[in-house]
Amino acid sequence: MTIKPLPMPNNVLKPDHCSEEEWQQRVKLAYCYHLVDFFGWTETIFNHISARVPGSENHYLVNPFGLNYTEVTPLNLLKVDLDGNKVEASEYNANPAGFALHSAVHGAREDIHCLLHTHTIPISAIVQKKKGFTHHDFYGAQLYGRVGYHNFEGITLFADEKTRMLESLGNKHVLVLRNHGIAVGESSIEKALFLLWTVQRAAENQCAAGALGGEDVEIDVSISQKCADLTAELIRESGFANEFFAAMVRKLKSQRPLPF
Fold it and tell me: What are the residue boundaries of the Class II aldolase/adducin N-terminal domain, all occurrences included (predicted)?
């Protein structure tokens, strides 16, 4: 599958010290922040999306704390280590609430290169319910067996919670932070955004169905498993997520100006 490359910034140049691989990652991550805002999934200046720096096991990119997602650019993204310390000079600092979650996952899961955290209203409603996500709609079925659950321990500031979050996540790619929000991780920014989109759609559908009277038509477990397996295979083996990401970037750029 031939995928049209993402457009590079028009008004910012790659710094000399930045590798081409890191610059590509910075551009994609900046687009990802703007897409999350475009979809209406932001929490003002809070929450965070991180991406591993290519070629580095211990450094990742994250948003500067205090900026709107619409103000994020490839240049102002912070490069930090697993303890949240900046490894390159910046006038900005990172959000300390993100270190425990992001550093834990990036430090332990080599297969996860991008981690997104949101708590939209539909997602926040679902994760407050004891049953969590059901799997009886088109999107929910795709998440069958792919969701871990972590009990609420307050704001994720403290290093001692890392081990428990990782135990809750296991080998899955979706972590429900009960009474809080969601974290999704995948092997690329494109795949992570597509997974978050699927989770968001599942939450919206489940909330809408729950508001209606009448009995739900339940999907058999075997069918839900088949849906989940097929979706995971499509994302893993094809350029499906890349096509989705590129199409959303084109839509974004057609409807609003970007600062890069």
Answer: 27-207
The tokens describing 91, both together, are 């006038």
Give the global pTM.
Answer: 0.94
Amino acid (one-letter) located at 181: G
**CB contact at 8 A, 19 and 55:** yes
- Tokens at 161, concatenated: 């919670």
Domains of the chain: 20-255 (3.40.225.10)
Which pLDDT value is given to residue 84?
A: 86
Q: Using the 8-state DSSP alphabet, how is residue 59 labeled?
A: E
What's the start-to-end Cα distance of the chain, in Å? 28
Which residues of the chain are modeled with pLDDT < 70?
1-4, 97-98, 157
For residues 169 and 174, what is the distance between their CA atoms, to the nearest angstrom? 7
Helix or strand (DSSP H, E) at 24: helix 20-38
Query: What's the farthest any 2 CA atoms get from each other in the chain?
Result: 62
CA distances from 135 to 141, 198, 224 (A): 4, 12, 7
Q: Is 244 exposed, middle or buried (0-12, 13-18, 19+ CB in 10 A)?
A: middle
In sequence order, which residues have a C-beta less than 8 Å from that of residue 18 and are 6 or more positions away? 26
Contact in structure between 242 and 3 (CB atoms under 8 Å): yes
* Look-up of token digits 């994609």: 28
Per the CB < 8 A criterion, the answer to whether 7 and 248 are in contact is: no
CA distance linking residue 260 with residue 252, whole number of Å: 13
pLDDT at position 75 is: 96
